[in-house]
Structures are given as C-alpha cells and as structure tokens.
Amino acid sequence: MELTEIKELMKEFAASGLTSLNFSQGETRLVLKKEVKTVAIAPAFSAGAEPVSGLPTTVSDQKEGQVQAGSISVDQGRSSEPASPEEEGQAVPAPLAGVFYRASKPGEEPYVREGQQVKKGQTLGLIEAMKMMSEIPAPMDGTIKSISAENGAFVEYGTTLMVMEEQ
Prior knowledge:
By secondary structure, this protein is mostly beta strands. The protein is built from one helix and eleven strands; from the N terminus they run αβββββββββββ. Strand 1 and strand 2 form a beta hairpin. The longest helix is centred in the first third of the chain and has 13 residues, at 3-15. Residues 44-86 have low confidence and may be disordered.
C-alpha cells in the first residue's frame, strides 16, 4: 500500500462516523482509531422530577474528525492492541450502551457496594438506553470486588461495570 493511499484512507476515516478501522493487505495491517465524544446526561425519573445535580458529564477535548496522535499504527503482521492486565475475578460487562446507574433513583441507596455478597440474578445496577431502564443481574453468587463504572456515566457495550469474585 502506498503512502498516498494510506493518507487518503486516513482522510476518509477522519470524515466518517466510524470510531475504529482495521485494514489488512498482505502482511501490512493498518489500525485507525478515534476518541469517542460522549456526554452523560441525567434523566428525570418521573414527570416533574427535579434535575439531578452532581452526576458527571464528560466531553472530549478532541475536535470532531480529528484523529488522536499516536492512535494510528502500521505494522507488519503484529497486533497493535495493548495488553491490559486482568483483575482477578469475573468482570460484569455492560449488556448494552447507555447511562449506568448504581441506584433506582437519585438519593436512594445503591443496589450493591464493594465487598457486598450477592446472589445470582440480584440486581447490580441499571442501564438507561433509549428512555428504557434495563436491570443488570448478577451472573453468579459472589462478592463485589470492585465497581469501576461511575454513577451516571455513559458506558459502551462490553465495558466492565464491576468485578465479582465467585463464592
């Protein structure tokens, strides 16, 4: 693949709505990634509810279409994905993309806390997507080892919400 072709592909990628692109040709592999802009907005849980304050809102500093420096790599048959250390226990992934909530409504006690023992099927939290709330059930009997997702934060599908240790 010629440098001009790579530059054209990068230009098309930057203008697209894609967040990642893996391209292979022969032994050459091109991986392009963009930082995703996300904004977490607290919903009203019932008609006439007061706005929720204190929930995190995050917006990327990166301009739309801009590819983050260092996120593009070209190599000869090697993976460019970084190895991430695995925390002991079983990860509880987000079953869908949406806003994660640790409690049923603002001001309520969270469903679970770190160190708490839970039963399989017990509600661990909620994810709101398209104005619908989905419960996140415990995949097994165990103990909540850590909670990595922030209350009110937008999470992608598959994001580790918490880690459990089986009993």
